Each structure stands twice: as C-alpha cells, then as structure tokens.
C-alpha cells in the first residue's frame, strides 16, 4: 500500500509540474521552472539544465543553481555520455566515478555527492539537452527516482522544445525588424534624384542580394559644373558590408565639405578604413570628378573595375582597369595621378559592379562585358536612366531562373549628343 501511495504521490507531482509548465514562459524562465520542479519532485538540493547547441555540438548551461553560463563539448563527461547514448545515468558516489568532472565543484566550493543525469529528448527523437539533478537530501537516488526523473524529463523536453522554438521565432522576427530598419536607412542614403549638370544626364540603380547590401553609389554636386561620382562595393553581403558602404559615403561627404581634393579624399578615406575594418574586409571604390567645362572625368579606382567608357563617335568601348588596390586593404603611400577620361558628345561612362558582369544563368554562363555592349549597341539614343534599366533587365533575363548571387549597382554618366 505504501508503494502505491508513493507512486500516486509521484504521479500527482509530475502532473502538477506538467500543468505548471504549460504556462507561456520565456525560455530562461522555463529552464528555471524545470530545475525547481526537478529539485522539488526528487527531493534534491541542486539542478542544472544543459541545452544542446547543434551548431557548435556543445551542451550549454543557461540556468543552474549558482552557475554562470558554461559550455562543454557534447561528448565529454557524464552529461556528454548521457546526451550521446540517450540514457539515464545514476551516479551514487560522484567522487568515486572517473567520469565526474570535479572542476565545477572546485570553482563553486560545492560538494557533489550523488547525481542523476537524464537526456531531454524532444519531437522526432531530437536532443533538446540534458537534465542533471544533484544530491538527494535523504540518501542516494533509487529506481523510483529514476522512473520519476525520466517521466519528468519527458514532460520537460516537450515544453523546453516549444520554448526554444518560440525564442528562435521571436529572435528571427526581431532580427527581421532590425534588418528592415537597416535597409530603410541604407536605401535612404541613395540619391533621391539624378543630378542636373548642363550637357549631361545620369542614371543609377542599386539591387542588393539580401535585404541590405555592400554596394553604394552617390552623386555630390560641387557647383553647377562639377560633380563628384562615387561607386563602391564592400566585401560580403548583409548588414556588416552595408555599414562599411555607408561609412565610405559619409566620409566622402565630410571630405568634400572640408574642400579636400580628389587625391586627398581617396587617401584619407583609404587610411581610415585600414584602421576601422577587420583584416579580411575592404571596399572597392571609384572616386571620380566630372568637370562639365573640360568634359573630363578624373578618377581613382581602388580595386573597382572595369570602368566602361563608351565612345559614341566610333561606337567603341574602352575598359579601364582598377588604378590601385581596394580601400582599406593597406595604407596608401604612393598614389598615382588620376586617370583622365575625355567625354565626347554621346559618350557614356559606366560604373558597373561585378554583380552585373558576373550574373550567371542556369548553365553558369556570365552576362559579362558583352551583355553590356549588346544593350548599348541596341539603344544608341536611350538616355542614361533608360540604359541603366535596360542593362538591369537584360542581366535578369540572361539569368533566367538562376538567383541573383551578388549585389548590383549601376551608375551611368552620359554626355548629351550635340
């Protein structure tokens, strides 16, 4: 009768725990509830939940009595063995078991006597983590405790799995909102209207691969005859490169306000990026100054190429390579004189990112320079923005069902025909 009464009491406790854990707690609160419930039901002194990180293949303590967050390999120690074998481990004497790691006791000053370690198995046999209960208050853990612990672990695994997924969804939604704000900020820095310079027209487009991208372009009028042209591509995709791109644009505008020359702006921005960016990061960038009096564009191209020059009178193309290494790659100590491109009537200067040239179709064939050439040859009378749109459309048509693999930026400056 006593055993039946004990079993009924254990069942009532587990049902009460199940009812309590059905509440919509956040993950950290849920972990604390599982630990407290385990200690109460099993009459134990201390408990710890190790959550499984499948990416790092580690077991992570997010909550435990007097423990900060710690990480251990998922195949080490008693918890690792329980996780790997998916079996309960009952250790009646911790210090007599070679698998027991005494380091945590030494760190906390706690003395572990006996231990129950139970795997937490979720839906479709997925490993959620490991529950470890220490020091039964009136002896060591017995077979009844093992049964209760396994029943409790089964309930805990379900609710922890639910809480973990909920946390991931909330984190994902929060990240989506943050990325959306970053995208709005980045898109807001792009030119709202094309600049007005007598005898010229301009076009521009930016299409990131992700919600944000590492490409940038800008037009900065100096007066009614001179215009600063900027186009760049920060390595990678996403928020990090987007920040680098925004930084370049901001520094250029500051440099122009301080009346920096083309050469000084390029050198100072490059050297600042060398200090700010990690070693594996850099920005390819075109810095050009259009002068409508002389009909020239003087430019430096740090790793950005090819720069297209369509010569209308001869219907020929000149492709300028990069003039120096990318911005942020290494300090600039010996900048060469800028390249000078003379624009005759009808000529087009094209700053086109490799997202266009390297746009591949399903067969791996790139759009290439020939794709750009075909668009300009077919549309000799189109204005700059029309050409931008047609190049973009032709590249996407070439790609077919293949996804866009890189950020795309196109900037065209066209001298009007006489």
Average pLDDT score: 84
Give a quick account of the main beta sheet: strands, pairing sense, barrel closure: 6 strands, antiparallel
Rg result: 32 Å
First-last Cα distance: 108 Å
Low-confidence stretches: none
The proportion of residues in beta strands is: 25-35%
Taken together, the total number of domains comes to 2
Helix share of residues? Answer: 25-40%
Number of strands: 16
Please, how many helices?
10
Tell me, what's the shape? elongated
Q: What is the assigned CATH homologous superfamily of the largest domain? A: PPM-type phosphatase domain
Description:
By secondary structure, the chain is an alpha+beta fold. The chain has 2 domains: 167 residues, GAF domain (Beta-Lactamase, 2-Layer Sandwich), CATH 3.30.450; 235 residues, Phosphatase 2c, domain 1 (4-Layer Sandwich), CATH 3.60.40.10. The protein has 10 helices and 16 strands. The strands form 3 sheets. The protein has a 6-stranded antiparallel beta sheet with strand order 3-2-1-6-5-4, sandwiched between helices. It is elongated.
SSE layout and pairings?
Elements: H1 2-21, H2 27-41, E1 44-53, E2 58-64, E3 70-73, H3 77-85, E4 89-91, H4 103-108, E5 115-121, E6 127-136, H5 143-189, E7 200-207, E8 215-221, E9 226-234, H6 239-257, H7 262-276, E10 283-291, E11 296-302, E12 307-311, E13 316-320, E14 339-342, E15 348-352, H8 354-357, H9 368-378, H10 384-399, E16 408-415
Antiparallel strand pairs: 1-2, 1-6, 2-3, 4-5, 5-6, 7-16, 8-9, 9-10, 10-11, 11-14, 12-13, 12-15, 15-16
Helix pairs in contact: 1-2, 1-5, 2-5, 5-6, 6-7, 9-10
């Amino acid at each position: 009768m006593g055993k039946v009464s004990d079993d009924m009491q254990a069942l009532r406790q587990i049902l009460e725990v199940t009812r309590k854990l059905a509440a919509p707690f956040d993950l950290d609160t849920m972990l604390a509830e599982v630990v407290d419930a385990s200690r109460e039901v099993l009459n134990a002194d201390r408990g710890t939940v190790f959550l499984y990180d499948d990416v790092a293949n580690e077991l992570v303590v997010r909550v435990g009595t007097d423990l900060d967050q710690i990480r251990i390999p998922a195949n080490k120690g008693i918890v690792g063995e329980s996780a790997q074998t998916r079996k309960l481990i009952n250790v009646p004497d911790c210090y007599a078991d070679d698998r027991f790691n005494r380091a945590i006791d030494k760190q906390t000053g706690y003395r572990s006597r006996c231990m129950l370690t139970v795997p937490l198995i979720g839906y479709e046999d997925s490993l959620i983590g490991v529950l470890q209960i220490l020091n039964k208050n009136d002896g060591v853990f017995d077979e009844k405790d093992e049964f209760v612990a396994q029943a409790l672990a089964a309930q805990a695994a379900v609710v922890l799995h639910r809480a973990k997924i909920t946390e991931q969804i909330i984190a994902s939604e929060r990240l989506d909102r943050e990325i959306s704000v970053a995208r709005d900020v980045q898109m807001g820095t792009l030119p709202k209207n094309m600049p007005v310079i007598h005898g010229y027209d301009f076009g521009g487009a930016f299409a990131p691969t992700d919600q944000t991208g590492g490409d940038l372009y800008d037009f900065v009028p100096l007066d009614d005859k001179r215009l600063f042209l900027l186009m760049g591509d920060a390595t990678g995709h996403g928020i990090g490169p987007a920040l680098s791109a925004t930084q370049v644009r901001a520094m250029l505008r500051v440099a122009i306000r301080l009346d920096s020359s083309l050469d000084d702006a390029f050198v100072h921005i490059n050297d600042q990026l060398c200090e700010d960016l990690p070693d594996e990061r850099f920005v390819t960038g075109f810095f050009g100054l259009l002068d409508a009096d002389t009909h020239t564009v003087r430019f430096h191209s740090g790793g950005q190429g090819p720069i297209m020059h369509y010569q209308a009178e001869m219907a020929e193309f000149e492709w300028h390579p990069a003039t120096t290494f990318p911005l942020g790659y290494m300090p600039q100590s010996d900048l060469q004189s800028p390249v000078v491109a003379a624009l005759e009537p009808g000529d087009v200067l094209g700053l086109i990112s490799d997202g266009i040239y390297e746009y591949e179709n399903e067969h791996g064939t790139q759009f290439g320079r020939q794709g750009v050439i075909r668009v300009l040859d077919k549309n000799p009378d189109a204005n700059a923005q029309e050409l931008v749109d047609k190049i973009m459309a032709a590249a996407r048509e070439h790609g077919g069902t293949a996804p866009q693999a890189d950020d795309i930026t196109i900037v065209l400056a066209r001298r009007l025909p006489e």
